[in-house]
Amino acid sequence: MAVSIRLRREGTKNSPYYKVVVADRRSPRDGKFIEIIGAYDPKKPGHNSTLKIDRIEYWISKGAQPSDTVRSLIKQNKKATTTAQPSPRVEAESPQPTQEESSPPSEPAG
Length: 110
Prior knowledge:
This protein is α+β, with helices and mostly antiparallel strands. It has 2 helices and 5 strands.
């Protein structure tokens, strides 16, 4: 079965909203699909898509072919996730001050 990762149109007239789906190539654009792996809102400014990158990599490893638009969305999301995660800093370990053992308080003479 030839599998593709493509957009499925949803939303109303003049306000499209897309789901990123894994589907058989022979099925229609808005027809049957195997799995929903993301969303894309072209009307939203800035970062306008959310994708499950791990599931996309899984399906690509199984032979799924992403469409041109989905391929560009994958690039954008991978770039956004690498810039959002700060690089791990190695901090020098500073020795923590040791607590001196204090003698128990003496009992008041009574």
